Amino acid sequence: MTVGGRYQVQRVLGRGGFGEVWEALDHNLNRRVAIKFITGVAQYPEAARRFAREARILASLNHGSIVTVHDAGTIDHGGLPLPYLVMEMLHGGTWETAWPDSAVETGARLADALAHVHAANVVHRDVKPANIMICTDGRTVLMDFGIARDDNSLTRTVTTTGKAFGTPAYMAPEQFGGAGATPASDVYALGLVLVEKLTGQRGPAAQLTGAARAAVPGHLVPLLTRMTSHLPQDRPSAAECARQLRAPAAKPTLVLPGGGAAAPGLSGAGAVVRSGSLRARLAAPGALLALFLVSGFIRAYSYGGPHNGSLWSGPVRGTIGAFAGPLFRVRGQDFSTWDAQAWAAVTTPLVILGLGATLALTAGLVPGAGTLPRLGGYAAAALAVAGLSWQAANYPPWYDPHVPMEPSTGMWLFYLATALTIGEYIRRDVRNQRPAAQVRLPGTPASR
Q1: Above 90 in pLDDT, residue 280?
Q2: 398: alpha, beta or left, given left = phi > 0 and alpha = psi -120 to 50?
Q3: What's the rounded mean pLDDT across residues 159-174?
Q4: What is the rounded distance in angstroms from the CA atom of residue 187 to the CA atom of residue 193?
Q5: Residue of 26, 112, 126, 186 marked catalytic
Q6: Are 283 and 425 part of one and the same domain?
Q7: Is the separation of the CB atoms in 196 and 202 below 8 Å?
């Protein structure tokens, strides 16, 4: 289908309640574009009005973090008018699934965009991760201005049917009461998004638990608390948010027991240690991975007792070979009856998958991590333990019915690395659930 005599529609990119977005080729300029169509205009006249408003608003805005409009128009579709909007083609993913290099810098870019929007007397009214595109070229783009308002009153928040505009999970408290959406409403929504991305919890910053609060850079806690304040008048402007999000952090002072303080840069027991740093998080998992690799090339079993054979051996007779053996010995008929050989061939990859996932989740475990990723680590550990337990009881990796063998150094080292891996994950999870150490910025009074 060709739209407007120049746009060759090719494939659908997404569908929503009132519209569809398609990828198209602009033959005049030989470039890829995104075309948004509004469906169900006859059944929902309000959708067409919102669409026209979105086109008008976007055409009036010019900012690197706001999607650019190229064209707009209407085509005949089955005897009915079908409005369309031609926009720049963005490559990337929404902030629901994509992870930018810095959540704080992404928030600053969004605050810049909202400041530009608010200066044009526009309120977005639907700031949420699904409307934020993290582009592969490094840009952060605010999208979907379909329910934005550009009139002077900025008071209409509820439709004639009583349904509020926006996404309830990110709406400001005043919007639920039917009050008019204002720039402060957008700031509140952006604050919720930042709290969610920094801590894994959604809600006002003042309600964060101690562990979740520790995941937020200390100098940003007051800002996020103001952004998610219950009262609109207590929230900062979007421009102020952008400035403070980019402001350098003051060096924190660790409050010691008894009211003392450790000076920044002090070495020894009083030093300020950033436990959430990448190096600290990777140290233990890296050491455990090295231990697994070492155990893989040490002899896994011995013939007739541990005194026979050297400690080191090739991969065929080492721990790697012991676990890989069932994968090479299994035959098709084993799976037809699901005998011990078949189960051994299945449980071995599951053990490796479980241990690999446990190590990866250990490295990624930070204060404020959500329940789902935390449970994922325990599930991965349980998978590895279940596989190893079954093999030890039913078909040990050193099993050979013709030769008397028993586990040797490599196998015991592998089991030890497994236990240490699971223990390290539990230790980190328990530590992250404890209240964080109190950090005071220079110039702020100590709490009593």
Answers
A1: no
A2: alpha
A3: 67
A4: 10
A5: 126
A6: yes
A7: yes
Q: What local confidence, expressed as pLDDT, does residue 260 receive?
A: 46
Judge if 78 and 113 occupy the same domain.
no
Tell how many helices (H) and how many strands (E) occur in the chain.
Answer: 13, 14
Q: What is the dihedral of CA 309, 315, 321, 327, to 10 degrees?
A: -150
Judgement on whether residues 292 and 236 belong to the same structural domain of the protein: no
CA distance 292 to 386: 18
Q: How far apart are CA 22 and CA 89, in angstroms?
A: 10
Task: Assess whether 309 and 418 both reside in one domain.
Answer: yes
Residue 182 corresponds to which tokens in the numbers above?
A: 């204002």
User: Is 112 a catalytic site residue?
Assistant: no
Evaluate if residue 334 carries a pLDDT over 60: yes
What b/e sequence results for 406-445 when a residue is b if at least 16 CB atoms lie within 10 Å of its CB, and e otherwise? ebbbbbebbeebbeebbebbeebbeebeeebeebeeeeee
- CA dist 369 and 275 (Å) reads 14
Give 56's contacts (C-beta < 8 A, 6+ positions apart): 150
> Where does 89-237 show beta strands of DSSP type E?
92-94, 132-135, 140-142
C-alpha count within 13 angstroms, C-beta hemisphere, residue 120: 20
Which pair of tokens denotes residue 416? 């030890």
350 and 311 assigned to the same domain: yes
Query: Is position 271 within any domain?
Result: no
The angle that helices 340-364 and 278-296 make with each other, rounded to 10 degrees, is 150
Q: Which residues span the domain enclosing 396?
A: 278-432
Cα Rg for the chain, rounded, in angstroms? 29
Q: Look up tokens 């995104």; give the residue.
A: 34
Question: Distance (Å, rounded) from C-alpha 340 to C-alpha 354?
Answer: 20
Give yes or no: residues 161 and 23 share one domain: no
For residue 142, which of 167, 169, 106 has the smallest C-alpha distance? Answer: 106
Which residue from 374, 368, 385, 384 is spatially nearest to 436, judged by alpha carbons? 368
Weakest-pLDDT range from 56-60, 344-348, 350-354, 438-442 = 438-442
**Which residue type does 38 have?**
I
Q: State the pairing for strand pair 92-94/405-407.
A: unpaired
- Which phi-psi region, left, alpha or beta, contains residue 7 (left: φ > 0; alpha: ψ -120 to 50)? beta
pTM, two decimal places? 0.55
10 Å CB burial of residue 262 (0-12, 13-18, 19+) is middle
